[in-house]
Amino acid sequence: MPKISLALSTLYSDLAQRVHSRALRAGSPFVMNVKGRAYAYVKRQIGSTRRDDYVGPVDDAKAQAQIELIRQAQEQEKQDRQTIRLLVRSGIPAPSKELGRVLDALSEAGIFADATLIGTAAYQCYSPIIGHELPSPTLTTGDADLATARLAIRSLPEGETILDVLRRAEPTFAPVHALSNRKAPSSAFRARDGFMVDLVPQQRTRRDPNPIPIEGAGAVPLQFVRWLITDPITAVALFGTGVAVRIPQPARFAIHKLILAQERRDDQRAKRRKDLLQARALVEALRESDPYALADAYDDASGQGKRGWAKKIERSLSELQISVAEIIG
């Protein structure tokens, strides 16, 4: 796989650091007169919606200071938008408009302080982190089920439901209830255009309820998720002025895909093939850029699970014609 230049990787790293350290969200300040007094507001774009946030009376010193900070943030975000355009033109993957809006709404709500983005939406973020261009077939798919934002999540901000947040990204989001139990809280949400968001909590014990209730929603527990999202890393999705997210460590993601491929049913061959292709791409890149992380993830996963994680990993490696020795060095 082609390498990403050091200049582009550095540009991305600097952008990610700025995006994750933003003290406030920029917007367009404006003044509204109410009963003869001027009040400052800021108009902010969140997902696909615009929101007017109150700042304070125009003649208030604290409001004036806040507006100045917003203007400074606005200028910095203009530069960040230009940086993102340069990265995308240079071949760094960016989310689709639909996914970008969802990630923006989730991030603005503070959900990534707790949640971890997984699945293909997370995989798209790895190229500048591992320093290699990932093969384009592994980044997208024609299967609508795979055009999905998947979140490993424990809780939501107080007073919010996941549906409230998602409707800032796309007002047509609605819960998708399981046919077997339509009264159970939903773990999936679909927009009118078919875009899906799944909630995937980390399973603590086999006695966990299914679905696990999460403030206005329910999430279907999956095995291996807790291991996958241990010690996640920060990343930035190249949408708008940059969206701060958390994603699994790339080595854990690669090994997890090797395990998951052996868990797929016979009617999930397309997903299984994508699991293996994504795993291969990350393994090949990490063998060069971070071989010790790859070996550590393999060793750790091989010692987990009562049903033989090691056997699943080795079966997938065999299908990819990669030896265990190539993983552990």
Largest sheet: 5 strands, mixed
Query: What's the tally of helices?
Result: 12
- Low-pLDDT stretches are 141-148, 207-221
Distance between the termini: 20 Å
Radius of gyration: 21 Å
Give average pLDDT, whole number.
84
Give the beta-strand count: 12
SSE order, as H and E?
HEEEHHEHHEHEEEEEHEEHHHHH
Shape, per Cα inertia axes: globular
Helix content percent band: 40-55%
Strand percent estimate: 15-25%
Spatial strand arrangement across the major sheet = 4-5-8-7-6
* Secondary structural class: alpha+beta
In short:
42% of the residues lie in helices and 18% in strands. The protein is α+β, with helices and mostly antiparallel strands. Strands 4-5-8-7-6 form a 5-stranded mixed β-sheet.
Describe the secondary-structure layout:
Layout: H1 6-20, E1 28-34, E2 37-46, E3 49-57, H2 61-89, H3 97-108, E4 116-118, H4 120-123, H5 127-130, E5 148-152, H6 162-169, E6 174-176, E7 188-190, E8 196-199, E9 212-213, E10 218-219, H7 225-228, E11 233-237, E12 243-247, H8 250-261, H9 269-289, H10 291-302, H11 309-319, H12 324-328
Parallel strand pairs: 5-8
Antiparallel strand pairs: 1-2, 2-3, 4-5, 6-7, 7-8, 9-10, 11-12
Helix pairs in contact: 1-2, 3-6, 8-9, 8-10, 8-11, 9-10
